[in-house]
Amino acid sequence: MLWITGLSPAGRKSDLVSCRLWAEPQTPDVYMNGDFVIGGEFPFHYYMRPEEKTYTRQPLQPQCSGSMNFRQLRFARAMEFTIHEINNRTDLLPGITLGYQIHDTCAEVAIAVKVAFQFANGMEPFFSDTDSCSKSAAAAVPALVGESSSTRSISMTRMLGLFGIPQVSPYATCACLSDKRQYPAFLRTIPSDHHQAAALAKIVKHFGWTWIGAVRSDTDYGNYGMASFLKAAQEEGICVEYSESYYRTHPRSKLERVANVIRRSTARVIVAFVHEEELKLLLEELTRQPPPPLQWIGTEAWIMDPSFLRFNMCAGAIGFGIPRSVIPGLREFLLDLSPAQALKSPLLTEFWESSFSCSLTGSSEGARECDGSEDIRALQNPYTETSQLRITNLVYKATYAIAHAIHVLLTVCKLCVALQILDQLKRVNFTTKNGYQVSFDSSGDPVAVYELINWQFLHSIQLINWKIGIDNRVKLRSLLVWRILNLRQISVCSESCPPGTRKAVQKGKPVCCYDCIPCAEGEISNKTDSLNCMRCPHEFWSNNQQDSCLPKLVEFLSWDDSLSITLTVFSVAATFVGGCVAAVFYKHRASPIVRANNSELSFLLLFSLTLCFLCSLTFIGRPSDWSCMLRHTAFGITFVLCISCVLGKTIVVLMAFRATVPGSNVMKWFGPPQQRLSVFGFTLIQVLICVIWLTSSPPFPIKNFKQYKDKIILECALGSTVGFWAVLGYIGFLAFLCFILAFLARKLPDNFNEAKFITFSMLIFCAVWVTFIPAYVSSPGKFTVAVEIFAILASSFGLFTCIFAPKCYIIMFQPEQNTKKHLMGKGPSKSL
Predict the structure, then answer these.
(1) Does domain 562-767 have CATH number 1.20.1070.10?
(2) I need a surface site. Which of 53, 166, 280, 726 has the fewest CB within 10 A?
(3) Residues 757-799: tens digit of each pLDDT
(4) Does this entry carry the keyword Zinc-finger (predicted)?
(5) What's the CATH superfamily of 193-321+450-468?
């Protein structure tokens, strides 16, 4: 136990009470003396043998146990190699010898901190049995390389920072260590997890995996790294179904719970921010009851270790690793190891005995003695594997960084090394012997460069690598060729919403779980996974698939419409019949039946009816400014002309019978000139109404968007509603007046009493236009115009048939009745 501060009996923090270390100093596993000794801490073992209970003031030194980590041994030996290489150089630290002391931390925070204290106080035993602190004359290390764990590095650098001793880690990636307010003495040659987490989120997004699971080591590395990833994933729109943590010392029940969560999950992609040890335990547990095929996304902590390919479920794993490198001479240095050399270090002795299953010291019971026939070059283990040097190169760079900082400071003053090495380390900028740039930013981090690693089963197990760079905005550069990766796993909570639909988040679930709602009428979505539907522009409408806007169908009564053709045929036929009747009347213009009721008015009536038939054609075709003004005014004037003629004929009938009374001179007041004047006067009033209408607010073409959602109705707006109803009202007034007068004259004695036929024609006329109003209002689109044309033709046909058909019948089929004597007969009418 290490005491630095204590508490007074009152519970208040007091001054320094004791600085006694209740343990012996940790003996270095590998060491070499020098002018400057660089410290090194590596976890060669992952377990620590429990200490025996003792009440002595100096308990036994803790011992590491478990199998040796050969990769960590290679890292430590790479540090040795680098220092030897530096000592052999004449351009770097000439005349100065670097030494090293390398310790095993047993992957335990307590041991790592203890060794760090030892480095800060000096490399020799420095605590006495007295109650006061006494430091030996041995100098503290100027800097140290290590540790590989973020958790242990956090504990170490908190303490080392108090003494200004820099720690350069080749493998601690926690983004928290970039905070220089808390960790001012920490630097590293491996990029921060902040960059890796953002890159992992982008790669997950690239492959369309929006529904993922996440597991992490319950350490600073796993917790901080996963927090960075989850933040980046949220920004990319990725949903996480679960996020589970585990540490190798946790109860097995927790490991089983994490495995069951993965098995029950619907997410088929797992992002694993875990250490090698935790992942091995997890994969072994999952192998007992394999889940459905999974796509693993890995970090540099395990994705670079091909030993995981023995688990078939890891095939196809993808992740970011440290770029491969080559260190000339390192392999020869690692293999230049004999039994005699191995005996000089307990660490190398354990390596030799473990690798060859023999005993160098003869202390291992049941094991054969090493006889010298062992060939280290025939070994195939992580220690001798130098084809993919990744972290090893970071150890190489870290050691060189310390050497360069010492070199610069020695050119100033030798005594400045211990005081200013931290500041100088932050400013180093050089290229290593194997061609790698070394520098640190203001946070003590290097430039972030990764390799994308994909595990594939080809003809043999292979790692496919692409080197990529990550700039400050964390963009994957074009060196990465995505389509080479054979990744077909699909992991989504909900299938993508196709065009024509929008996403609606399911209540109580993450945003990646949604329903696809079809867009409403008139709205579209033209891309996959639209959040909202867009309304089509005013003159466009959505298609049946709701994925594009099409121009609305423009509707009007066109000339090629079947309804238009039918109405046109009726209009032209009526005009032709009117012409034929006019020809008959003209041929028999001297006959009594033609002359009996002012033949001039009859011809004028025929002419006006012909105009009525023809004016219906102005309602057909695409509305324009001229056609809108023409159709209503032509209709109003021709109908008034027509009814004025009928009204004149009705008055003539009444005046004619009044004139038969003895002494009456009525006819001289309503002779042909007065009849012409009355027709002209009645028509002129309608002309004036139309002129006022057209000059104040004339009809104009409009696009009616209200009648139909998916159609545009081209029609004529009335302009002035008052003007339109004034025209119709005047026509109605004349028709009603004509009907009253004709009704009064219907029983006047005459074999050919025209008044009763005029009465019938006015009844038809009024009936047509009374029913026209509701039909006109309720008819949709082009049928509104068709109803108006039908009303014009029907009322015109009614007038034409009732007034001219009886006369034509007599002229053509009963000529014997076409005499003045017959027409002036006093008996009951025998006419049609």
Answers:
(1) yes
(2) 53
(3) 777 777 777 777 777 777 766 777 778 888 888 888 888 888 8
(4) no
(5) Response regulator (3.40.50.2300)
